[in-house]
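User: Sequence recovery, please. Input:
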């Protein structure tokens, strides 16, 4: 991109990069709200840049957003280490029939991948995301992070080794959207009618339930393992409260998901990992329940 000439050109340049920058910030932070805050900070700094002083808006803004996100990530890691229960990424939720938003880039990041990225230190996460998601070469990454090319290569090797450690499979939602949507609908119906056998039939034998209430909402503090335990948990919660869940199909990070409603208000977001199972079209291997109200403020129709 050529050097900026005036404020209108600066605004147009930022708007043209916004979707990509939002995707970068979301991958680095795992939070829609924090990604938006980073973009706001980036815009304020970008708007103060002297016209004509930047040769490449894309490179400058990528560096700016990366550094702002890294500052937030380093602070966030301390809070996440002290988090009550399991920390899950903030979901990016959209209706199935809604037209794709201009800045819907984060939806392409599977929930499972965001959770895996939590294994990485800030520098490892930055190098991995810039290399794998942004497709930058090591020289560009080194310049952005103020490190040598060889240091960035070493950081990338460590990041890949860390991500390769066993943690259960994750599935790209693009490979299983249709099957996943059918499974999510069937799961909603079976759960609402408290049908133990039907719930179990939809889950893989090694299914996992990962819940995040942040200490503010009652949910399973520790992961639940196995179809039997998950089915009993779902049925037990509804029996205890004397009401059945209501569900609304949505897209969560681009994959099939549900808004779960109890007592007339949406209380959590459910996201799914789907795995192939014989010729039956798949089963649910992992369910992510995000119930922390602070992570649901941007979810449509959320009330608490």
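Assistant: Recovered sequence (304 residues):
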């Amino acid at each position: 991109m050529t050097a900026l000439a005036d404020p209108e050109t600066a605004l147009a340049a930022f708007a043209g990069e916004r979707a990509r920058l939002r995707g970068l910030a979301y991958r680095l932070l795992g939070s829609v709200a924090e990604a938006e805050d980073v973009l706001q900070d980036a815009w304020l700094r970008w708007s103060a840049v002297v016209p004509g002083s930047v040769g490449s808006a894309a490179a400058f803004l990528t560096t700016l957003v990366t550094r702002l996100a890294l500052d937030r990530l380093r602070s966030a890691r301390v809070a996440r280490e002290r988090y009550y229960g399991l920390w899950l990424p903030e979901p990016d939720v959209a209706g199935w029939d809604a037209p794709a938003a201009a800045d819907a880039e984060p939806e392409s990041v599977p929930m499972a991948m965001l959770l895996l990225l939590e294994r990485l230190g800030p520098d490892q996460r930055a190098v991995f995301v810039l290399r794998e998601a942004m497709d930058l070469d090591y020289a560009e990454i080194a310049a952005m992070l103020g490190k040598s090319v060889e240091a960035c290569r070493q950081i990338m090797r460590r990041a890949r080794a860390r991500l390769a450690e066993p943690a259960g499979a994750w599935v790209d939602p693009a490979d299983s959207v249709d099957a996943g949507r059918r499974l999510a609908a069937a799961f909603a119906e079976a759960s609402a009618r408290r049908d133990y056998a039907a719930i179990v039939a939809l889950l893989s034998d090694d299914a996992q339930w990962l819940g995040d209430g942040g200490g503010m909402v009652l949910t399973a503090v520790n992961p639940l393992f196995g179809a039997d335990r998950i089915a009993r948990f779902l049925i037990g919660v509804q029996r205890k409260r004397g009401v059945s869940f209501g569900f609304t199909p949505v897209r969560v990070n681009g994959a099939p998901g549900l808004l779960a409603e109890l007592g007339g208000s949406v209380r959590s977001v459910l996201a799914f990992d789907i795995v192939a199972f014989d010729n039956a079209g798949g089963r649910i291997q992992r369910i992510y329940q995000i119930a922390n109200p602070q992570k649901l403020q941007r979810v449509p129709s959320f009330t608490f």
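The radius of gyration is 21 Å.
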